[in-house]
Amino acid sequence: MTSDKDVWSDPAPARLTVGIVSAGRVGSALGAALERAGHVVFGVSAISDASLRRAATRLPDSQVLPAEEVAARSELLLLAVPDAELPGLITGLAAAKAVRPGTIVAHTSGANGVGILAPLTALGALPLAIHPAMTFTGHDEDVARLANACFGITAADDIGYAIAQSLVIEMGGEPVRVSEEHRTLYHAALAHGSNHLVTLIVDAVEALRAALAGPGLLGQQTVDDQPGGLAERMLAPLASAALDNALRRGPAALTGPVARGDVAAVAAHLEALEAVDPRLAAGYRAQSLRSAERAKTNPALLDLLEGR
After folding, report:
1. 37, 173 in Cβ contact below 8 A?
2. Which of 28, 138, 251, 278 is 20 to 30 A off residue 269, Cα-Cα?
3. pTM to 2 decimal places
4. Where are the alpha helices (DSSP H) in the chain?
5. How far is it, in rounded angstroms, from Cα 96 to Cα 294?
């Protein structure tokens, strides 16, 4: 790519000089994926020890540079900072005029579209929002998971959408258009379906550990509070099947005492969970109420769950 005109007119550039701010879990994973696609990540901004280690491991040929220098030398600038830090970073780069006209600037925030990039767009940057709908742990599986992930993309025009679509496909993902006005709703849905799922599973594991405590069968693993133990192994096939059923069959996948409208069983569950931890019982009650509403179940069960 040799000119600003090329940046704007070529919807599928074959090779870009990429800079990343910062080399956190998301930025380093996307950087590795872009390099596999033939782009060159020349530099990253990294401050914490964890980010420096990820940069050295995932992007060993990239230089660690100040954010403004990364921005100034990039054809594609990837802003992969936490949501709360994004406005300040954009304002600072714009004030320093660190971004050249024609630079493709993409952020990875799920909650924001391209409006937040307005200070850089005013300098002639092409704004993109490219958000991988995936959780990142900082471990080796992050890059591999991108191949099965959808990416929520938002752009200012058709050229921007074409570039964002091309980049996502090159990384092995599936691009999905999300309108500017629906970015917050999009992000809320993903957070609800992933973050709250973690809390649900961890709560269920805690209750199951309490249920399995005490003498076990000969050779049975001792139940303790370490992850990956007996409770997790018992719950994993059931939770995996329930998730698969929900994604394939929708509300029809609901089973169990709430779906059946079994007031006595649900009341007993609440009492047992209350004895372990009232917060577990409160979580069970709230989720059971939503499940009962979905299932249009026994009105008496709704009364129980609503405390009437």
Report:
1. no
2. 251
3. 0.87
4. 4-9, 25-36, 49-58, 67-73, 86-95, 118-121, 141-145, 158-170, 183-212, 230-249, 257-260, 263-276, 278-295, 299-306
5. 52
